[in-house]
Amino acid sequence: MDEAQHQGVRFCPRCGGERLSWPTPKNFRCDCCGFVLFLNIAAAVAVIMECQGKLLFGVRKHEPGRGMLDLPGGFADAGESAEEAARRELREELGIEVPEMRYLFSFPNRYPYGGMVYDTLDQIFLVRWDQPPPVKAADDLADVVWVERGAVEFDRIAFDSLRRAVRRYLSES
Ligand SMILES: [Zn+2]
How far is the CA of 27 from the centre of ligand 1 (A)? Predict the structure, then answer.
């Protein structure tokens, strides 16, 4: 078994058996009890907010990427649409309700947490403001900063998917 590919998973979570087979890299089957588990990608959302030529970034409070820049967003909960997840994250992290939001595009990401690496699909939304909204950093964010479109420091952005998203947005708008 390729330990790196299978993230060190060695025992069946149902029966504790050690005879796991991996028909594909994203699912295993227990040869003792027949249990099958799929390690599917997680759906996530992120929001680009633009106001008067500036983009809003959050400063991450926790690992991974503590102290680095992030877009407001996070994992979608079960039963939620991507739009609902984006609106909930904006409420939780910035304390705001958004009037209008537009889907832009998506990028894959890898999110290491607690010894596992979660593959995600980050769906990116856009909110444009005429006047700066009354944002207040909360939840996973230590702070928020507005950055001029031409002054974005891409190597300070925590995740590859979000670097690509901001680059693409700036090149197309
Ligand atoms: Zn089993």
Answer: 13
Just give the CATH number of 42-172. Answer: 3.90.79.10
The residues, ordered by sequence, that sit 6+ positions from 71 with a Cβ below 8 Å of its Cβ are 46, 47, 48, 56, 57, 58, 124, 162, 165, 166
> For residues 45 and 89, what is the distance between their CA atoms, to the nearest angstrom?
9
Question: In the block, which residue shows the tokens 């099958």?
Answer: 36
Centre of ligand 1 to C-alpha 119, Å, is 24
Percent of the chain topping pLDDT 70: 97
pLDDT of 140 reads 83
Distance 10 CA to ligand 1 centre (A): 11
